[in-house]
Amino acid sequence: MTTLSTLRLHRKRGYERAVRLQVLELVETSNVHNVSKLLGIVRRTIRSWIDQKDDILAFDGNKKRMKLSPGGRPESFPDPVGLLEFIKEMRVRERALTSAHMITWIKRFQTDWLRMYLAGKALGTGYQGKLRLLQRFCHRHGFSRRKAGCGKQSQAALIEVRDEFAEEFHRS
What we know:
Elements: H1 17-29, H2 32-39, H3 43-51, H4 53-58, H5 80-92, H6 99-109, H7 111-119, H8 126-140, H9 155-171
């Protein structure tokens, strides 16, 4: 009969990107067996890093990071790129973006997804859930929900003021 004390429990070890880079440098001058002995890393792990060498060297993120690919929950919205383009277009046109604008865009371009989304919600909760989904989407992609102020000037007026200031500044 086996007990927990007799079983050898192995914990999968994670290695930082800096360690992987160091191993790849050492493998160029030595063989996998020697590097494995020197650093105490399993040979199969080193060989898999050699297979992933291009990805490891191309990654430009933090060197303490364990994974090359970003994690997280997949996007539940079907066309995030299209909605982001719509939001940016509204901002370029200097129009206040509201949740109603985004819902109208979804109704126009993502009707099938909207029907499926609302079908999965309880009666009376679909609209609030959709609003919350859009709020989280905007927050996740770095858009704040600011209200347009009465002192807001158009982009053309701001560029004109900037150019006048630059001309006056460089004249003196």
